[in-house]
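User: two proteins, same treatment. go.

Assistant:
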Amino acid sequence: MRVSLLNGNSSSFFLRSIFGSGNSLALGSVWRPLKARNPAKAAGFLRCKSMSTDSPVVQVKEKIDLTEKEKMIFDRLLATIRHFDLSTQLRVAGGWVRDKLLGKECYDIDIALDDMLGSTFVDKVTQYLASTGEEAQGLAVIPSNPDQSKHLETARMRIYDTWIDFVNLRSEKYSENSRIPTQMDFGTAEEDAYRRDLTINSMFYNINTSSVEDLTGRGFEDLRSGKIVTPLAPKETFLDDPLRVLRAVRFGARFGFTLDEELKRAAASNDVKDALAAKISRERIGTEVDLMISGNEPVKAIAYIHELQLFWVVFSLPREHELTLPEECDRLCLAYMDAAWSLLQLIGSLSLADEQRRLSLYAALFFPFRTITYKDSKGKKIPIVNYVFRNSLKRKASDAETVVGVHSAVARLLSLIPFLESNVDRELNEDDMGSELVDIPASSKLRVLTGFLLREVKDFWRVALLIAVLAYPFPIGCSEDAMFKHYELDKRKEVFKAVENAILKLGLEKIWEVKPLVTGKDIMNVLQLKSGGPLVKEWQQKLLAWQLANPAGTADECLEWMRQTHLKRIKME
């Protein structure tokens, strides 16, 4: 991939700095203008200060307090062991132990067995339940699927309406060019702990002894000090399974923990970056990114990816095409996402649903790509945003289509914002009008244009508005004064609310659900046509414009307007 760079002044929507509310300042990244010999050029660029290395103080419990349901579940499993006189040690592994020690409830219970497969133990539980007159529920065996990063068979069952997964402890060896283990044996609890991704995820709760086992000797310590550390040497850990790099980023952001310095050096090394690109499926990378974007600290997660120099590994672009990107495009992407996240906090969580919030962050992150395209094998121009979603992250097609649609709507929305945010009636310029508006009264044209836009972007019009506000009336500028920065975001919030209220006042909420008053068959009858075609499509747009301009109009009135307009055209011709 050959990439050309634009300088900072050539992008009309260039975001020069992050204006953070209190939420933004807490993210741990500080954005400052680059110091350079050419001040004009430097004004357009950003420098990201490294994420804070000060570890948080975390309250960690000394022991795990079980809920009544957990006690009942574990008692039932121990009764199975006693019934068959087994020596099996039952250990709850990973995230459940971490979350319980942090005082959080967790319903994801994974149990590791030291001397048998999960399916074998589930059979034992089933037999025991039968001996007591009970019937096992939800039995399932999920086979191993290395291509989807699932290396062990997992047995599942429901106990007291809770899903429990059972797997065996294991030790693993990896090949050089794959994250699929070449050799996997029954392992000890200690071997299993050391093959985990992070020390905070390596602890066990031994059900037999009702105790927490910290077999790496680091789990408690790193949880208390808020550190993200690997049980073994980080480079060895990441080369064995490079997906662990992204998991480290995700957990670091989620809990507000600090990435270990040696871990950061290993993650940023060329060997690990190459391994991440070569050994990990794009589906798995996309899944991790989606969990970050949907999480509680999405900006912090992407900032870690940027800091570890993994941005272009994760959001890879087509290598065989020559692309022109804004200079320091990765920082610009992060800057837009940070600004969007900060603005979301000011606007309030109720403005957007979860799915809208998720895609709004993607739309902000990829906003610098919005005008960049490449040609596919058939010579068709494809937006780079589409490539990143479909190829780099392997996300669903609807995500790509929605974000591309939002970017397209932003460009048109920017021209409408001045009219929508003001309470003064102003006529649109002729350049803003399409052919479907020629016969529409000037006073109705704003409603018509806005209605057409909303009918295209549908439920995501507020997402488009959020992104447009970041570029209106100009990109966020540079300032060292925190209060001024906050004022700038407040002003953008005011614009968002003003435009939102104007759209609601125009009665355009859910306008995309309004059906056309006139059908294609009606149009063909008026025009005396035997079949449809471009002329029918043209009139469909004109009649929809009339309907938007006359929200109280009837089908008969719409058809009469069409007849009169059509007759005028014939006379003029």
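Protein 2:
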Amino acid sequence: MSSVITSCEHPEPLRDDDVLNCHNDGQGRRKPGRAGSSSSSPLIYSILDVPPWYLCILMGIQHFLTALGGLVAVPLILAKDLCLQHDPLTQSYLISTIFFVSGLCTLLQVFLGVRLPILQGGTFAFVAPSLAMLSLPAWKCPEWTFNASLVNTSSPEFTEEWQKRIRELQGAIMVASCVQMLVGFSGLIGFLMRFIGPLTIAPTISLVALPLFDSAGNNAGIHWGIAAMTIFLIVLFSQYLKNVAVPVPVYGGKKKCHMSKFYLFQVFPVLLALCISWLLCFVLTVTNALPTAPTAYGHLARTDTKGNVLSQAPWFRFPYPGQWGLPTISLAGVFGIIAGVISSMVESVGDYYACARLVGAPPPPRHAVNRGIGIEGLGCLLAGAWGTGNGTTSYSENVGALGITRVGSRMVMVAAGCLLLLMGVFGKIGAAFATIPTPVIGGMFLVMFGVITAVGISNLQYVDMNSSRNLFIFGFSIYCGLAIPSWVNNNSEKLQTGILQLDQVIQVLLTTGMFVGGFLGFLLDNTIPGSLEERGLLVWNQIQEESEETTKALEVYRLPCGIGTKSCTSTCTQYLPFWPRLEAGKGERGMNLLACLFQDPSGEPPKGATETKL
């Protein structure tokens, strides 16, 4: 949720709503002849345009703030099961690490992946299997870790308790990421998408958030008054006041200093709500309106319960691979995370097509989709190595923000990736978010999880919901995705086979609601007779058929630095599923090594250079 927040050196005349618009010429400017957007409103900058540097920075900040809720939420959700609920300093380290890795993965995706302006960040698809794995008897936190008075966060015993759990998550994520890389770079994702339709995706994504109602409710229940106010503010800003423009002073253009309208509530609804709720908690803490006794209701709404985190956190901290120790691997964890990987891949493919439509690009061809999924797998591998406790995926919220800002430039997302890298290094930023009072977090969770559930259900728009077949598949998948994990959690002893590893795999998979619901949706949708139109696959197939190797598609989705062009390719690359396809005449398929390394803007190799073809 964001909007354009800047002025330009040469702005166009203001529109009827007097909101400043940016169209520049020349260096860092929009070039004429770019493809327009297929969305209802014209783009200010399309994917191949390069906006001025200051606009890139401002829009990058907006994308960071749009993804902020999801980035911060993942470590905070995992904190309790990692035995870290009374260690906000380590929580801040996890938040900083996920910022850093998200920035790194965003840059990889923009330059080498699908090449669309999509931000990468922590995924909720990995949260459910992670919690299922950590709920196994071997990984349940000791009782003393739940008592703040017994926890010494600097003791070696406590450090080993949480680090051995996150190392287990790291190993599972790194192995599962190899599966995602294989599926992407081998082109297998295109084959799988023939059988995965809306009736598989809808229950899978919906069940990512539905089972987390307990966690959100418990956090909000620390003080329902504070949580309710947070929810009210988020809804007020994002829904009721989103079209209210606030006058702000702007310098630039012919008018020099003048007032322009800025959709403040549309851009920062979550951030504004968090800040106001946080401020209220601070006032209630200073006035002692909130109880000081640790066991009293509402004590964790006080801001001084985590107040020492900011003073303890270093100003700069560089996350690095293996910072929590050598990752460990268990079969149960790997299978559980693979279920999350499948869900994440399916959602990302949908994000690619939506993003392309919003930024004025052709639908991504198969090689770009394959490359995007492969790079996301590489991102999950890096996330596992760095120890975020999570993987990475494409952020649907930021794809939606592209349609609001009407700035689809690839360079804006590069700026957002660089900003995330800086935030990950600046230790005080992560510490600040780790001090958010618990009921404020709970209120934010309730809103976010509701939106994620709705996003999953929205996939049903492609299918015929007047069909009793489709109603049965979706309803049965959702209900079983809630009922079966609940029963298994309460009766795990009844699923013992005598083989410990097998018992753990079965328990993790059957307590992961999105796996149960997604598997049943996939099985029933592909076995119960139904037409392609009834199943919603006809629309999807038409979208994929439009992803042809047009000149525009080659321009958008080709690799950087001339890699994959006629002067920089080889005969062997034509068999790689993730390599751009080019039609070339005889003798034109050969890698000009010097052209690849030293190619000038005209595309010609340096004079006097000896050509070496591979």
